[in-house]
Amino acid sequence: MKAVVLSNVSKTIKAREVLRNINLELEKGKIYGFVGPNGSGKTMLFRVISGLVKPSSGTVTVFGQTLHQDVSFPSDIAVLLEKPGFLEQYSGFDNLHFLAMIQNKIGKREVEEAIERVGLDPRDKRPVKAYSLGMRQRLAIAQCMMEKPQLMLLDEPMNGLDEKSVDQVYEIIREENERGCTILLTSHHKVDIESLCHHVYSMNEGVITGMTTLRSK
Ligand SMILES: Nc1ncnc2c1ncn2[C@@H]1O[C@H](COP(=O)(O)OP(=O)(O)OP(=O)(O)O)[C@@H](O)[C@H]1O
């Protein structure tokens, strides 16, 4: 079974086709990069795969389940989109613990471990509104991996991170992939894509214009 299959997916917003006839078959356990200029449709593609946006035509299947048909949202998926939203007046731990309690899949210890893994302190009582952009981004990455999903969609995960944090996030992405997680990521930095991805898709004006294989293992 493939991780993600898109068949003839198009999305029209206000009479503009922002995704045009996308066909994709993504294997389980690989890291895929998506590159392209601003506005080429990378974020929209991730929204469609995560079930947040319904395509105007075509089908999206994640781990064998067709979205908006078999299920509303894919299961076992974590998504990092631009500008992660948190409860601003609560601490990082409280935010993630709250989300974990809703899902009821993991406990306090796993939340603490995820926060430590991204280099934040689970005992830090400061509210998220006092966090820097990089701290927010790290918290969002902790949120993505805390429930050990089978598929992660990371839109610009290195956004706002300093050099040391970028290395930490590279390491986390590689470790998550080694435990079998399929990862899709976008980045405007060639080095991120080249360091991490097995395959890279190029997008332009809502179309996939090419695919390059960087490594097979
Ligand atoms: N809610 C919306 N309403 C109207 N147009 C939208 C909406 N969301 C996205 N678009 C348009 O869809 C196109 C694709 O946008 P998208 O955010 O997917 O690009 P991107 O490749 O992620 O760009 P970037 O590199 O800047 O993140 C753009 O032309 C954008 O203006």
TrEMBL record:
<dbReference type="InterPro" id="IPR017871">
    <property type="entry name" value="ABC_transporter-like_CS"/>
</dbReference>
<dbReference type="InterPro" id="IPR005895">
    <property type="entry name" value="ABC_transptr_haem_export_CcmA"/>
</dbReference>
<dbReference type="InterPro" id="IPR027417">
    <property type="entry name" value="P-loop_NTPase"/>
</dbReference>
<feature type="domain" description="ABC transporter">
    <location>
        <begin position="4"/>
        <end position="217"/>
    </location>
</feature>
<dbReference type="InterPro" id="IPR003593">
    <property type="entry name" value="AAA+_ATPase"/>
</dbReference>
<dbReference type="InterPro" id="IPR051782">
    <property type="entry name" value="ABC_Transporter_VariousFunc"/>
</dbReference>
<keyword id="KW-0067">ATP-binding</keyword>
<keyword id="KW-0547">Nucleotide-binding</keyword>
<keyword id="KW-0813">Transport</keyword>
<dbReference type="GO" id="GO:0005524">
    <property type="term" value="F:ATP binding"/>
</dbReference>
<protein>
    <submittedName>
        <fullName>Heme ABC exporter ATP-binding protein CcmA</fullName>
    </submittedName>
</protein>
<keyword id="KW-0201">Cytochrome c-type biogenesis</keyword>
<dbReference type="Pfam" id="PF00005">
    <property type="entry name" value="ABC_tran"/>
</dbReference>
<dbReference type="InterPro" id="IPR003439">
    <property type="entry name" value="ABC_transporter-like_ATP-bd"/>
</dbReference>
